[in-house]
């Protein structure tokens, strides 16, 4: 079975371990720094960059407000073009549909092109349980799969690996899954790319069934759009007899004209390129050209739950460019695995709890995986206000199910809330704090408060409050 994030520790534990891994931190810092620099240069070339961001946010909001209409329009168009549309409420249903579709072809090995959604729903393991092997063909996703690893970034899933580590994975694993790595393979990028090309080419030419994700779904024509850098996606979308595209409900865009806005934003913001090297569009079935059977599986898996959240629904605007993780100081120190999801970084900190609900023990702490510096707000091409959503989700955790918070913390916060509501009580508490302040331990607080001082200094409590000082000195004049 492939590794998944199921059972992964919650962020505080996973991050504590990840921050100790100096190799990981160095790999992530180097990679995110490079992409950040390229992006910053490229976006300044566009005088209309901020207008494009406004348009993209407005278009996504329009789709989310009328999702039913656009999805039904897409279904009608796909069907008219000879494809079949399937609707999946959750991961189990999506996996069952895809597994049955592959089974019906009689194939035992299929190819996949990078789809975070299929990672989210655990499709590889569902297929494996049915005796079907799914091989990743996006280079970074293939590195992750060959290394029995997990993705750590939405655009560069193997960002946490350096060239030497990738070489070792190729030499060790390629031969077990097909064509082995060439003799004497070094960690030169050109050599690594050639080794991957030879290994994957064999898979493309053999596979009769391909599973893809999609960056966008154009509702007016039912067209699946895949944006990528290597051309492997195009091979998947065109060479197989049967194509199964597994797509989240939120990927719809109304028209081709609207798609243009997103295509201008995506590559610049994701990888610092003026345009993506390969943008492949696919509509239904064309006799004698490309896959002769096309299935579109539209997956909810928590998206309608997120849509119901008036503040949080903006997370569904995300076009997975990865810029928010490239700029995030928390992500830079922990890497992506600590988030326990295929969606790491700032978008993961809001999207995962929105998809799973506030009571999920693995994702409940994610809204706290942020310094609230707001750097992500500034780079998001669809203007997601991360800080608004993070604060809203933190509020839900604080007010929510007692299982996800410590009872002592709740009692302490309730007591502080009660005191703050009454000025006389508050002033008395401040005076008392000034008197006991010198007795406080300087390094670590005792008992259940110790956790708070694991990562913080104990603040020095002033002998008198500002108000008392103001009164005593007549505003600093005495
Ligand atoms: S949330 Fe915004 S910045 Fe982050 S991956 Fe999505 S579109 Fe990109």
TrEMBL record:
Family annotation (InterPro entries): 4Fe4S_Fe-S-bd, 4Fe4S_Fe_S_CS, FTHF_cligase-like_sf, Helical_ferredxn, LUD_dom, LutB/LldF, LutB_C, NagB/RpiA_transferase-like
PROSITE patterns: 4FE4S_FER_1, 4FE4S_FER_2
Domain 4Fe-4S ferredoxin-type: 309-338
Pfam family of the protein (one): Fer4_8
Annotated keywords: 4Fe-4S, Electron transport, Iron, Iron-sulfur, Metal-binding, Repeat, Transport
SUPFAM superfamilies per record: 4Fe-4S ferredoxins, NagB/RpiA/CoA transferase-like
Keyword Repeat: yes
GO biological process per UniProt: lactate metabolic process
Top-level taxon of origin: Bacteria
GO MF annotation list: 4 iron, 4 sulfur cluster binding; metal ion binding
Designated name of the protein: Iron-sulfur cluster-binding protein
Species of origin: Streptomyces fuscichromogenes
């Amino acid at each position: 079975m492939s590794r998944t994030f199921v059972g992964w520790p919650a962020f505080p534990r996973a991050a504590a371990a990840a921050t100790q891994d100096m190799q990981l931190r160095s790999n992530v810092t180097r990679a995110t720094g490079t992409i950040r620099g390229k992006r910053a240069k490229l976006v300044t070339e566009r005088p209309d960059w901020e207008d494009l961001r406004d348009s993209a946010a407005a278009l996504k909001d329009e789709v989310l407000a009328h999702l039913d209409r656009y999805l039904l329009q897409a279904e009608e168009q796909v069907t008219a073009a000879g494809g079949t549309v399937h609707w999946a409420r959750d991961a189990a249903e999506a996996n069952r549909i895809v597994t049955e579709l592959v089974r019906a072809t009689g194939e035992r090995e299929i190819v996949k092109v990078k789809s975070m959604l299929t990672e989210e729903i655990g499709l590889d393991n569902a297929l494996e349980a049915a005796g079907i092997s799914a091989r990743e063909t996006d280079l970074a996703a293939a590195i992750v799969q060959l290394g029995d690893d997990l993705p750590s970034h939405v655009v560069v899933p193997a960002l946490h690996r350096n060239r030497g580590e990738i070489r070792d994975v190729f030499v060790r694993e390629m031969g077990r899954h097909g064509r082995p790595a060439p003799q004497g393979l070094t960690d030169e990028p050109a050599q690594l790319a050639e080794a991957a090309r030879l290994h994957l080419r064999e898979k493309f030419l053999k596979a009769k069934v391909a599973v893809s994700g999609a960056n966008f779904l154009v509702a007016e024509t039912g067209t699946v759009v895949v944006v990528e850098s290597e051309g492997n996606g195009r091979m998947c979308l065109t060479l197989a007899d049967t194509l199964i595209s597994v797509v989240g409900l939120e990927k719809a865009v109304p028209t081709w004209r609207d798609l243009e806005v997103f295509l201008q934003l995506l590559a610049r913001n994701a990888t610092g390129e003026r345009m993506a090297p390969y943008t492949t569009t696919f509509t239904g079935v064309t006799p004698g050209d490309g896959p002769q059977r096309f299935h579109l599986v539209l997956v909810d898996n928590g998206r309608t739950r997120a849509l119901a959240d008036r503040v949080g629904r903006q997370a569904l605007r995300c076009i997975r460019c990865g810029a928010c993780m490239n700029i995030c100081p928390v992500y830079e120190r922990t890497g992506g695995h600590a988030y326990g999801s295929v969606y790491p970084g700032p978008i993961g900190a809001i999207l995962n709890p929105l998809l799973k609900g506030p009571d999920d023990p693995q994702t409940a702490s994610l809204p706290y995986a942020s310094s609230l510096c707001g750097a992500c707000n500034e780079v998001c091409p669809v203007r997601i206000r991360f800080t608004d959503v993070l604060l809203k989700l933190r509020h839900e955790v604080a007010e929510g199910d007692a299982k996800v918070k410590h009872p002592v913390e709740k009692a302490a916060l309730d007591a502080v809330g009660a005191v703050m509501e009454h000025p006389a009580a508050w002033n008395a508490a401040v005076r008392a704090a000034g008197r006991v302040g010198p007795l406080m331990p300087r390094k670590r607080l005792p008992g259940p408060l110790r956790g708070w001082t694991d990562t913080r200094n104990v603040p020095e409590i002033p002998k008198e409050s500002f108000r008392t000082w103001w009164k005593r000195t007549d505003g600093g004049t005495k």
